[in-house]
């Protein structure tokens, strides 16, 4: 993804006119949905954001937008295909940097470089696979769904597996599982307590998957990416 940032900013004059580098902090709003006015999207260079939807008069956590990912990619549409009342925002989960990119400027570069085009398609396809999986499995046993979401978060955040363990960052909270699963909090916490008793996870002082292999067996999410994050990026 750094190659895309470098490609988009190769010309200082064009980069100054069509891109803007921003710095964000924990709980700072990075991006809001506004189809009519917004002709830009976000490319996360460093750090992590939280995708939140506005439901029932409050903002609810949905998933992470991690380093090297896009936010607001729906603004690449040339015209509004349907009337949408969806409200969402991207809020900083950590400190980081991102690029605000003009959509037409990006499209010109995307079509000029097949690797950028493929990166966008890969990003959309992975999110589609995860969304489709969650929709298909929404009535599955809660124990499986908790395992599914924990693995999904590990994938999205590119968390390394070291000695069969995965350590979650400080910005992760167990309440996020409740929000995503839309299940009673006491049921979700009961599953977490069971997993802790089985020594599959530990919750304090840091949330850690202590036995990744056993958690994976509880899940119905089968992606090769689970194997590809076995070692930390260098």
Structure description:
By secondary structure, the protein is of the alpha+beta class. It has two domains: 4-130, Jelly Rolls, CATH 2.60.120; 140-229, Winged helix-like DNA-binding domain superfamily/Winged helix DNA-binding domain (Arc Repressor Mutant, subunit A), CATH 1.10.10. It contains nine helices and eleven strands. It has helices at residues 2-8, 12-18, 103-112, 114-136, 142-156, 174-181, 185-197, 212-218, 225-228, and strands at residues 19-24, 29-32, 40-46, 49-55, 58-65, 70-71, 88-92, 96-102, 166-167, 201-202, 208-209. The strands form three sheets. It has a four-stranded antiparallel beta sheet with strand order 1-8-3-6. Helix 3 (103-112) packs across helix 4. The longest helix is centred in the middle third of the chain and has 23 residues, at 114-136. The protein is elongated, with a radius of gyration of 19 Å. Residues 230-234 have low confidence and may be disordered.
Helix and strand content put the structural class at: alpha+beta
Number of separate structural domains: 2
Parts with pLDDT < 50 across at least 5 consecutive residues: 230-234
CATH topology of the largest domain: Jelly Rolls
Strand order of the largest sheet: 1-8-3-6
Protein name: Cyclic nucleotide-binding domain-containing protein
Organism: Listeria booriae
InterPro entries: RmlC-like_jellyroll
Write the layout of secondary structure elements.
Elements lengths: L1 H7 L3 H7 E6 L4 E4 L7 E7 L2 E7 L2 E8 L4 E2 L16 E5 L3 E7 H10 L1 H23 L5 H15 L9 E2 L6 H8 L3 H13 L3 E2 L5 E2 L2 H7 L6 H4 L6
Antiparallel strand pairs: 1-8, 2-7, 3-6, 3-8, 4-5, 4-7, 9-11, 10-11
InterPro entries: RmlC-like_jellyroll
Protein name: Cyclic nucleotide-binding domain-containing protein
């Amino acid at each position: 993804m750094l190659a895309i940032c470098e490609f988009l900013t190769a010309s200082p004059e064009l980069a100054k006119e069509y891109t803007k580098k921003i710095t964000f902090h924990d709980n700072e709003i990075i991006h809001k949905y506004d189809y009519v006015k917004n002709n830009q999207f976000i490319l996360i260079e460093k750090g992590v954001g939280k995708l939140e939807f506005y439901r029932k008069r409050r903002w609810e956590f949905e998933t992470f937008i991690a380093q090297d990912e896009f936010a607001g990619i729906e603004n690449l549409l040339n015209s509004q295909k349907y009337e949408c009342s969806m409200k969402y925002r991207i809020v900083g989960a950590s400190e980081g940097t991102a690029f605000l990119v003009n959509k037409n400027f990006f499209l010109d570069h995307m079509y000029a470089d097949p690797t950028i085009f493929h990166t966008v398609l890969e990003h959309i396809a992975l999110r589609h696979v995860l969304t489709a999986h969650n929709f298909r499995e929404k009535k599955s046993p809660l124990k499986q769904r908790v395992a599914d979401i924990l693995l999904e978060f590990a994938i999205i955040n590119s968390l390394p597996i070291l000695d069969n363990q995965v350590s979650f960052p400080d910005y992760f909270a167990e309440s996020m599982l409740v929000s995503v699963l839309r299940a009673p909090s006491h049921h979700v916490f009961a599953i977490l307590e069971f997993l802790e008793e089985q020594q599959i996870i530990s919750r304090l002082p840091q949330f850690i998957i202590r036995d990744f292999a056993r958690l994976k067996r509880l899940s119905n999410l089968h992606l090769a990416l689970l194997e590809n994050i076995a070692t930390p990026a260098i």
